[in-house]
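Appendix B. One record, verbatim.
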Amino acid sequence: MPSNNTERLLRLSISLYRSPDMTGAEAYEFATNSHAVQAAKIHAKHGIHAYIQYFSPESTRRAIEEMNKRRNRGWVVDDHDMTLEFYFRSFEEMNKVTNDPDFQALQAEEEPYVNRKNTVVSLGWVETYVEDSKVVNIRDNKSTYGTWEESSDISTAMPRQGGGSGSG
């Protein structure tokens, strides 16, 4: 991307259901006071920009369903219990995390708490326009982010291939 643009920040989100053997409170306790504590250190060590846990229990889903009905929005309300969000600049950062033996052990520990069936994953980039109640990343009434072509070219975030010929 040209240097005059705001650097692209990728977001990988993984939406999960809790295990049917766990209550919402039990899954939350594990996610926040065990998993997050350990995961945060690993993600920070490998340069992840942000790691976020987003919780959506039945009470919040009921509230948004009611708003949906009241305003006749026609929304499909996501019924996952939690979403993990990873913000990073390149897949090299994510690869460092997934290859970390401590992270691999941590993933094994989460198995009793999550139900991987119907997990939803998405990958895209984030463009921030208001931060701390201030307009950001707009100059001369235009976005400072790259063009659609630049931003959607995911190859620029892929790890560099070592050896061999060709362009990288």
